[in-house]
Amino acid sequence: METYGDMMRRLDLRVSSPDNRIRARMHGDGFDIKFNGRGYREYTEPAMEGQLAALFQLLWVGRRKADLMAKAKTMGEEVAAESRNPSSLAGKELFAQRQRLEVGGTSSGGHVKVGCVGFRDWKVSLKRGTLDELSEDEFRAEVRSLASAVMGDYHHKLQPLLDEYQRRLDPEAFRRTKDLVREHGGSSWKVSAAR
């Protein structure tokens, strides 16, 4: 039987920027962007920032849809429905807190910064002169490096929320889990980032 993890590793999501000059692909183990023709050299920095922000929004919406479909298929429609619209007070609070999480990251070379709130309202900023300084391949590498930076920040900020949610649902199980984690080292929750 196929698992949720199997389905998400097989993810192959492709989207285009609103101007159709940048294509992005998110797949189970990676992320990349490509420019149509000479598109990279034709952008101004503000235009590139706007197109990338819209592209990241489209990728996140597509990933969220894939997440819900994978949950429905492997864990049941009830689990997917709860993920879309929690029924418990603790679930609703966790959902609301996730929607307010401010996350962001900076590319490995420091040329591109991205931030968003609840994976909505994406903002991208380029260090001035980036498009003149970097080749298309170098710029693509900068953008690719953002995925792990943003998801790392997200998971770092999500962990305390998940801990509180679990503590409220089952305080005794939460205490036992935390005790085991302390004994053996490591995190009590394994949350995998989309790469």
Shape: elongated
Q: Determine the mean pLDDT.
A: 86
Task: Report low-confidence residues grouped into runs of 5 or more.
Answer: 185-195
Largest sheet: 3 strands, antiparallel
Order of helices and strands: HEEEHHHHEEEHHH
What is the rounded distance between the termini?
A: 23 Å
Biggest sheet: strand arrangement: 1-2-3
Structural class: alpha+beta
- Counting DSSP E segments of at least 2 residues, the number of strands comes to 6
Number of domains: 1
Q: Radius of gyration over alpha carbons?
A: 19 Å
What is the number of helical segments per DSSP (H or I, 4+ residues)?
Answer: 8
Could you explain the architecture of this structure?
By secondary structure, the chain is of the alpha+beta class. It has one domain (4-184). It is 58% helix and 18% strand. The protein contains 8 helices and 6 strands. It has a 3-stranded antiparallel sheet. The chain has a 3-stranded antiparallel sheet with strand order 4-5-6. The longest helix has 34 residues, at 136-169. The protein is elongated, with a radius of gyration of 19 Å. The two termini are 23 Å apart.
